[in-house]
Amino acid sequence: MEPLNSSLGSVFILVGILDDSGSPELLCAMITVLYTLALTSNGLLLLVITMDGQLHVPMYFLLGQLSLIDFFLTSIIIPKAVMDFLLNDNTISLGGCALQMFLALTLGGAEDLLLAFMAYDRYVAICHPLNYMIFMRPSICWLGVATSWILGFLSALGYTIHTMQYPFCKSRKIRHLFCEIPPLLKLACADTSTYELMVYVMGVAFLIPPLAAILTSYTLILLTVLNKPSNEGRKKALVTCSSHLTVVGLYYGALTVMYVLPSSYLSPEQENILSVFYGVVTPALNPLIYSLRNKEVIGALRRVLGKWLLPTQSTF
After folding, report:
1. Which of 38, 91, 13, 2 is nearest to 277 (CA)?
2. Nearest to 221, CA basis, from 293, 126, 148, 106
3. Which end of the chain is more exposed for a tag (fewer CB within 10 A), N or C?
């Protein structure tokens, strides 16, 4: 096949999960609802954390960063996919594809590392409460957040430049929800085996250590909590940890399968399903599980938005 012209006028065609679905209208409605939920919940959480002084503590500072990442991550993926389906125009320029890939990888990489730092924050708060403000002083918080963003940015830049240097064949259909490395490499007219090995190695290096840090942190938290005499405290910690680990499992599980397993193990349909999980499902679930069922956040919401907007009782 002749390579695709590499000018900015060249276009790809995104053939995502909506196009392959047996009930695309229903799936489009579900994804739109999830996107609206992700946008609203993350936006509310950002507003409350910013405006309420009682939430200006390390835990909520990190949660605010997570909401910021999720707010933008889902916004660079879902609106275009839904509008493409509604307008029956799935094209995206080469430059637009590169930009979408770069932004998604930057935000995804930053979230990957931030979740590990958040797990460390919870470990310090529960296992070393007397030293919490020492181990989580502002300089440490900013260092952790800055490291997450910088490493996410640098890895995304390297991936995007290298991926878009390949010549692409005339078959311009990207069978994926958005522009991402594995489906794009399937269109390359050159040997990508060495690069795919590099993506695998970098995926392991970028995903597995943070995941191991998260599991270690929550294991130490559970061991500490189980030794406490209060049954109510143990139950609350177990419920909280299990909820957090569920979200972490969905996010890291999808990314690990996408970037660590060889691409031959996955069909385009399976890749599309995975992209929905980390592109819209986890951004919608994160604020609900991490924060919006928390009494402090509910109280802050009442103070910021007014008591008439919320029920008077919290169920947490």
Report:
1. 38
2. 126
3. N
